[in-house]
């Protein structure tokens, strides 16, 4: 993410609302402590630093996920970064059950370019983005295709975490690359044919009829 925000790392900012004290430690976690004399006062983690929230190619917030469990899911918090005169946690809410929203004010985001994603990327990823821009301009990809490329760039840069489904898709892509040449494909085909023959023989040994054609 933006290098100038790293100076917030190692610091924590608190906010007290009624009987709860919230603490936000950038690039680390968000916690909540119930300030009461009850024997079972709640104290827990509302999220651990996970990924950025990117909107309109700008960093708009930080996602703290995988907090303490809450019914069937984990607590998570979105921290909105807004311009302010000093570094302070200004507002806390819970828009939906166990999903929290924090507003963090800081002078570090007041400059109009302070939260742009592009300058934080490596040259290779910037080139990839430039190419995507050109493809979109030449109408060779749709807006949806452009957004998909940007998402891949952000994931590659480590700004966003890929979902499990995407990881599986990537693994499958890696596997399919192995059969790019005809030679590799023929070799694989022979191997699979042998395997199918073995399985057919095994089925007939057990008296199970094999239904299906060779195309399947």
UniProtKB/TrEMBL annotation:
PROSITE patterns to which the protein is assigned, alphabetical: DMAP1_BIND, MRH
Domain of life of the organism encoding this protein: Eukaryota
Any one GO MF annotation of this record: transferase activity
Annotated Gene3D superfamilies: Mannose-6-phosphate receptor binding domain (2.70.130.10)
Keyword Nucleotidyltransferase annotated: no
UniProt entry keywords in alphabetical sequence: Disulfide bond, Glycoprotein, Golgi apparatus, Secreted, Signal, Transferase
Localization in the cell: Golgi apparatus; Secreted
Domain DMAP1-binding: start-end pairs: 117-216
Cellular component annotations (GO), alphabetically ordered: extracellular region; Golgi apparatus
Residue ranges of domain MRH in the record: 10-112
Signal peptide positions (record): none
InterPro entries assigned to the protein according to its UniProt record, in alphabetical order: DMAP1-bd, Gtb1-like, Man6P_isomerase_rcpt-bd_dom_sf, MRH_dom, OS9-like_dom
Self-association and partners: Homodimer; disulfide-linked. Hexamer of two alpha (GNPTAB), two beta (GNPTAB) and two gamma (GNPTG) subunits; disulfide-linked. The alpha and/or the beta subunits of the enzyme constitute the catalytic subunits.
Function: Non-catalytic subunit of the N-acetylglucosamine-1-phosphotransferase complex, an enzyme that catalyzes the formation of mannose 6-phosphate (M6P) markers on high mannose type oligosaccharides in the Golgi apparatus. Binds and presents the high mannose glycans of the acceptor to the catalytic alpha and beta subunits (GNPTAB). Enhances the rate of N-acetylglucosamine-1-phosphate transfer to the oligosaccharides of acid hydrolase acceptors.
PANTHER family membership: N-ACETYLGLUCOSAMINE-1-PHOSPHOTRANSFERASE SUBUNIT GAMMA, N-LINKED OLIGOSACCHARIDE PROCESSING
Name this polypeptide is given: N-acetylglucosamine-1-phosphotransferase subunit gamma
Source organism of this protein record: Circaetus pectoralis (black-chested snake-eagle)
Lineage: Eukaryota, Metazoa, Chordata, Craniata, Vertebrata
Gene that encodes it: Gnptg
């Amino acid at each position: 993410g933006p290098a100038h925000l790293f100076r917030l790392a190692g610091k924590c900012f608190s906010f007290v609302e009624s009987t709860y004290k919230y603490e936000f430690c950038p690039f680390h976690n968000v916690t909540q402590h119930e300030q009461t004399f009850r024997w079972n006062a709640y104290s827990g983690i509302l999220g651990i630093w996970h990924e950025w929230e990117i909107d309109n190619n700008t960093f708009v917030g930080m996602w703290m996920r995988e907090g303490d469990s809450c019914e069937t899911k984990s607590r998570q918090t979105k921290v909105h970064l807004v311009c302010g005169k000093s570094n302070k946690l200004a507002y806390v809410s819970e828009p939906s059950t166990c999903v929290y929203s924090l507003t963090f004010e800081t002078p570090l985001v007041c400059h109009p370019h302070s939260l742009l994603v592009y300058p934080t990327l490596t040259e290779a990823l910037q080139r990839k983005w430039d190419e995507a821009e050109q493809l979109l301009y030449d109408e060779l990809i749709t807006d949806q295709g452009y957004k998909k490329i940007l998402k891949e760039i952000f994931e590659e840069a480590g700004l966003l975490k890929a979902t499990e489904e995407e990881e599986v898709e990537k693994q499958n892509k890696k596997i399919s690359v192995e059969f790019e040449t005809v030679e590799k494909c023929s070799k694989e085909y022979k191997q699979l044919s042998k395997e199918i023959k073995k399985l057919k023989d095994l089925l007939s040994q057990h008296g199970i009829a094999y239904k299906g054609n060779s195309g399947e």
